[in-house]
Design goal:
Number of helices: 5
Distance between the termini: 22 Å
Shape: globular
Largest sheet: none
Structural class: mainly alpha
Helix content: 55-70%
Length: about 80
């Protein structure tokens, strides 16, 4: 909704980091823990000016959930989901 209302549909990774960062802040995680969690979840997953596929969005959300809950090492997978 934020992207739709601001017409900022070309910076998917930046916006995802921003929104997930807000979530982490509201959840009470210290700011110094944000970047490692965001890097693990998002880093390099989005292409600029390409709308992410539903599969990519699901994969990033699952990675974020695993990173935040501490289960990322157990279920990290191969990270082969491409944005096609």
């Amino acid at each position: 909704m934020v992207v739709d209302r601001t017409c900022a549909d070309g910076a998917w990774e930046w916006h995802c980091r921003q929104v997930f960062g807000w979530f982490l802040g509201l959840a009470g995680l210290p700011a110094e823990r944000h970047k490692p969690l965001l890097d693990l979840s998002i880093d390099g997953r989005f292409d600029t000016f390409v709308t992410p596929s539903n599969l990519l969005i699901k994969d990033v959300a699952e990675r974020f959930g695993r990173a935040v809950t501490g289960t990322a090492a157990e279920h990290a997978g191969t990270g082969t989901c491409d944005n096609e």
